[in-house]
Amino acid sequence: MADLYEVLGVTRDADQDQIKRAYRKLVRELHPDVNPDPEVQDRFKDITAAYEVLSDPQKRANYDSGGGSAYGNFGGGVNFGFGDIMDAFFGGGGSRGPRSRKRAGQDALIRIEVDLNEACFGTEREITVESAVVCSKCDGSGCTDGAQPTLCEICKGRGETQHVTRSFLGQVMTSRPCANCQGYGSVISNPCRECAGDGRVRSRQTIQVKIPAGVETGNRIQLSGRGEVGPGGGPAGDLYVEIVQTPHEFLVREGNTLHLALGISMAAATLGTTLTVETLDGPIPLTIKPGVQSGAAIPIKGKGVTHLRGGGRGDLIVHVEVHTPTKLNKEQEELLRKFAQSRGEKEGESQMQRQDGGFFSKFRDAFGR
Question: How distant, in Å, are the alpha carbons of 98, 138, 200, 238 from that of 233?
Fold first, then answer.
């Protein structure tokens, strides 16, 4: 008959911690789910039976004194705690016990639209959300008229029941959540009629949200504790407000920079002019120098979007597009020909230009031009 200490690979003076560590190490190597070899399964039964004896001080003393066989007298089966095997794999050891009725609530997400002006300068918005709140009738207890949950008669408050099954390992004892109390260890005999024992109800509430300057689509504002209240009146999760910025009529945003397409006449481009352009701060004058070319980018400092983190603002870039007239009367055609002749230009004469793959070509595409 094999020596139990040799089966576990420990000395006779090993303490309980050493015995437990040795057993767990062997379980991880020899458990049937890890190694299905029949010979390994027989050895697994041996180490389990050895641990059953050596982990119990009374059985171990009886074995050491020669009062029992190698595997003890257990009615032909091996009766061991399933938790020890689970601990070997998952490092457990803590008491499971009944679970609390109070559990943390879930986070909630709501999307709101803001225009470019609100995104640039920030704003406050009043939003209405529907979420779970603590039941005012029972204050989250789930019970009627101030009562309290009563001890479960099946599990006696443990929240779990034990079940013995037979397998090739012998008798295996497992623990399961109590079906009568769902693992809480207590039962609500007279549930609150308002929340049906859940401790929370659905309710609409209005919340003030401060939207900081510089936000853009995809940014989220976290409101701690304004999400769903948990079952049993547990702590609420967080509410996340996701920003969706709506398109502007004529301004295009690129990070903290704004872009504006400005069409001017051929005469204005040639002679230069001063025009009024619309910005988020209102209309401002813009001087166009003589001879400006189509595609020119004119920056206006500090008229872009506010930086979300830190002070200051981005720039506004004005992209000039020179409009060439498509219809001329005879008098206008004659004047234009005389102008060309005065400059020494000849009809049909051309000059090859390098392609400019800059931003403005993409910008015009965005406007469908």
Answer: 17, 10, 6, 15
